[in-house]
Amino acid sequence: MSINAPKGTKDIMPDQIYKWHYIERKFRDICRRFGFKEIRTPMFEHTELFNRGVGDTTDIVQKEMYTFEDHGHRSITLKPEGTASAVRAFLEHNAYAESQPTKYYYITPCFRYEKPQSGRLREFHQVGIETYGTPNMMADADVITLAHDFLEEMGVKNITLEINSVGCPKCRAKYRQALQDFLRPHYDELSDISKDRFERNPMRIIDSKDPDDQKIAENAPVMLDYLCDDCRRDFEELKADLDAVGIEYTVNPKIVRGLDYYTKTAFEFVSGSIGAQGTICGGGRYDNLVESLDGPSVPGVGFGLGIERLLIQMDVDGAEIPEDDNTDVFVAVRGDEAMKSGLKLMAELHRAGVSAQMDSLQRNFKGQFKYAARVNAKYTIVIGDDELAKGTVQLKNMDEHEQQEVPRDEIVAKLVELTVK
Fold first, then answer.
1. Cβ(338)–Cβ(384) under 8 Å?
2. CA distances from 205 to 77, 180, 210 (A)
3. φ, ψ of residue 162 in degrees (nearest 5)
4. CA-CA distance, 76 to 25, in Å (whole number)?
5. How many CB atoms within 10 Å of residue 32?
6. Judging by DSSP bridges, how do beta strands 250-251 and 159-165 pair with one another?
7. pLDDT score of 373 more than 80
8. How would you list the strands of the sheet with 44-46, edge to edge?
9. pLDDT-derived band of residue 259, with 50, 70 and 90 as boundaries?
10. What is this structure's pTM?
11. What's the number of CA atoms in the CB half-sphere (13 Å) around residue 319?
12. Residues near 42 by Cβ (< 8 Å), separated by ≥ 6?
């Protein structure tokens, strides 16, 4: 019996990992520029966190979570998204008592049991940001701007920002009634999941993936027509803030997002070129989430972005991802004494910050040079009996095929100058 990776998971091998390094490095850099600090939360949490935080009417909680009982008979769930864990950490470490706003970013694996397809795996990876402590729409615009600028820096094209307001509990009550009145004549035609949501959270029916539900909800009333004065004012302020920073957007009243905790702002960056799974990044405001997890009343706003989906978009758009630098120096040797000298030199290079390798299979001299080419060494150092006798090494530039003799006591400094950035 062969052992393969579980369905819906994927190995990331050395010939691909440089792409992930590039995205993570760029994301960390832009978060630094915007004033966000990294947070790392556990891969699993108590199941109650997601039941209460994500919402028990969501597809995630109802159908997609990896939940198990540990040896202490506690219900544990692998993290299906990043926000609930970040809020839990915000509360547990009393960050709400510090000067606000609090700004976090994360890079994390997530797990959802769903049908694997392009850009949607059972283990996937997400980058995201969270801002707590301010109800001002400047924070929403800041979050959206970071996502916009990051996607632009990644070289993606054909992306549209769509925004909506999903209101607050005050105005959502009127909308809920209007939506139920619209859907009630079609109740028997709804999917079983939507029937279950009809009383508990009818807005989620608009977000249903069932084609029949989508057809029924096509002409349903929209939340924008039921916004209270505060939510309408905030939505207009968000649009004005986005106009001020020069970010184009489209108002899409159908955006609900798939999580129950959203209030007011909801947004998505949508691709026109990667098919049905076109949402690259999504987020919004969740002013009641902290309180729903037994914390104080602290507003929040953030987004999540799937790395796998982003990589597909970058490939479609022909975005260039520079490969990681390969080996700086390969040390080729002739003879046992030269090998000992090479090992000493390689250790000195490592400590000086230079990437260096030797051949551990003790190939012949020609074989060593072939291996140096295979690992894409920029320079090769040659040490043999003649070099040992003279206290020198031969330094070869592998791209330009130029070779020079360098005193042994000067080679480390020279290679540091040539290779260390």
1. yes
2. 25, 10, 9
3. -115, 135
4. 31
5. 12
6. parallel
7. yes
8. 44-46, 75-78, 67-69
9. low
10. 0.89
11. 20
12. 79, 85
Contact 269, 160 (CB under 8 A): yes
Model pLDDT, residue 164: 95
Is 286 within 8 Å of 81 (Cβ atoms)?
no
When pLDDT is cut at 50, 70 and 90, the band that residue 250 belongs to is very high
Dist CA 129 CA 41 (whole Å): 13
Contact status, residue 162 vs residue 249, Cβ threshold 8 Å: yes
Residue 202 has pLDDT above 60, yes or no: yes
pLDDT tens-place string over residues 38-76:
999 999 999 999 988 777 656 677 778 999 999 999 999
| Residue found by looking up tokens 């043999």 in the block | 384
Measure the CA dihedral 198/201/206/208, to 10°: -80
Q: How many CB atoms lie within 10 A of CB 120?
A: 15
Residue 259 near residue 58, CB atoms below 8 Å: yes
Partners of residue 383 on adjacent β-strands? 333
What is the greatest pairwise CA distance in the chain? 95
pLDDT digits (tens, 9 = 90+) for 5-29: 999 999 999 999 999 999 999 999 9
* CA proximity to 303, closest of 272, 274, 262: 262
Give per-residue pLDDT as tens, 354-369: 999 999 998 999 999 9
**What is the dihedral sign for C-alpha 90, 95, 100, 102?**
negative
Full 3-state SS string of the chain: CCCCCCCCCCCCCHHHHHHHHHHHHHHHHHHHHHCCEECCCCCEEEHHHHHHHCCCCCHHHHHHCCEEECCCCCEEEECCCCHHHHHHHHHHCCHHHCCCCEEEEEEEEEECCCCCECCECCEEEEEEEEEECCCCHHHHHHHHHHHHHHHHHCCCCCEEEEEEECCCHHHHHHHHHHHHHHHHHHHHHCCHHHHHHHHHCCHHHHCCCCHHHHHHHHHCCCHHHHCCHHHHHHHHHHHHHHHHCCCCCEECCCCCCCCCCCEEEEEEEEECCCCCCCEEEEEEECCCHHHHCCCCCCCEEEEEEEHHHHHHHHHHCCCCCCCCCCCCEEEEECCHHHHHHHHHHHHHHHHCCCCEEECCCCCCHHHHHHHHHHCCCCEEEEECHHHHHHCEEEEEECCCCEEEEEEHHHHHHHHHHHHCC
